[in-house]
From TrEMBL:
Annotated protein name in UniProt: beta-ketoacyl-[acyl-carrier-protein] synthase III
Species, as recorded: Morus notabilis
Cellular component GO terms held in the UniProt record: chloroplast
GO molecular function: 3-oxoacyl-[acyl-carrier-protein] synthase activity; beta-ketoacyl-acyl-carrier-protein synthase III activity
Pathway in which this enzyme or protein is active: Lipid metabolism; fatty acid biosynthesis
Catalytic activity: malonyl-[ACP] + acetyl-CoA + H(+) = 3-oxobutanoyl-[ACP] + CO2 + CoA
Domain (Beta-ketoacyl-[acyl-carrier-protein] synthase III C-terminal) ranges: 313-402
SUPFAM superfamilies associated with the record: Thiolase-like
Domain Beta-ketoacyl-[acyl-carrier-protein] synthase III N-terminal: from-to ranges: 173-252
PANTHER family: 3-OXOACYL-[ACYL-CARRIER-PROTEIN] SYNTHASE (PTHR43091), BETA-KETOACYL-[ACYL-CARRIER-PROTEIN] SYNTHASE III, CHLOROPLASTIC (PTHR43091:SF1)
Family according to the record: Belongs to the thiolase-like superfamily. FabH family.
Entry annotated with the keyword Transferase: yes
Amino acid sequence: MANASGFFTSPTVPRVRRNIQPSIGIYRSGFCSSDGFSKRVFFCSNAINQGAEKLSPSESRLPRLVSKGCKLVGSGSAVPTLKVSNDDLSKIVETSDEWISVRTGIRNRRVLSGKDSLTSLSVEAARKALEMAQVDPDDIDLVLMCTSTPEDLFGSAPQIQKALGCKRNPLAYDITAACSGFVLGLVSAACHIRGGDFKNVLVIGADALSRYVDWTDRGTCILFGDAAGAVLVQACNSEEDGLFGFDLHSDGDGQRHLNASIKENEMDHALGTNGSVLDFPPRRSNYSCIQMNGKEVFRFAVRCVPQSIESALERAGIPSSSIDWLLLHQANQRIIDAVSTRLEIPQERVISNLANYGNTSAASIPLALDEAVRGGKVKAGHTIAAAGFGAGLTWGSAILRWG
């Protein structure tokens, strides 16, 4: 029987789900299957709890049940040309480079300006990922645009597909999950590949939160920047599978701590009460600036993110010592340090580019990953624990292999 993370387990494991019907389904912690995947079972070592040496995912204690694999084969990123330093911000709000860097680890951020657009950044990042993967745009089967700040109310993904010149009109749609969006995009890509006939899925994480920042609020304006990052997820045989496990959650009760809610335009009275129905037509609406309770978000992140990564590692059947790199959403250096300490992952194995870009929301993980790959840090075969967390509240992690 397969558990919720898509790995074959014995009946003695407490997490086993009983009475699963013969079908393929997706649960928050991974892939669940029954009859359809029964022909491919990988039985692995059970040395993980015996103080063994560092294990590779293929040597983990849990047998893995996968009919079709997926792997990350290309990455790309793009940032706006305008750089805004802490000193620049100190000229418009009461702050300083020291105050910001000590509390957040951020020194610079990039902000959309002039002819920049989120769509153009996303297209640039996507093209770089395709070039690295040596995949033609016409071979793309799906474009997933992970963003909370699309440049069209109905989504930006189709415009990216158009700009890339995909002649076969592949499906393209947006995923909205704030700073967790890219991790959800990776899992969604894997679902499309494993559960369907998709071969090449382009996953883009991109956000322009600068458009929703109150630049007079030093509690939020110091944090955010704009960027785009992309990876190509490609189908492969089960032996090469590069997504070992994941763990995804949301808690709407935490929305009050981090949001940009819709609000009515009080100046637009339209027909007012002279309409045929009271309060109709409705007043035009827009979104408020980002509202955040920094202390509560910090507490949420340092509590939930390590737990999520530990759950994903458990479902993948590998110890944290097998992780080559920890790659978290780049929100605050204190959060990154707290999570790495909890997981006992040394700083030299933590990827961080927060100082240069700030919090770029859904773009932060693919942006940092692309820099690490192109800089020679992350190499083919390396195992990465990635985790996103943010508004919603949403959070999730994935254990994956590069290349």
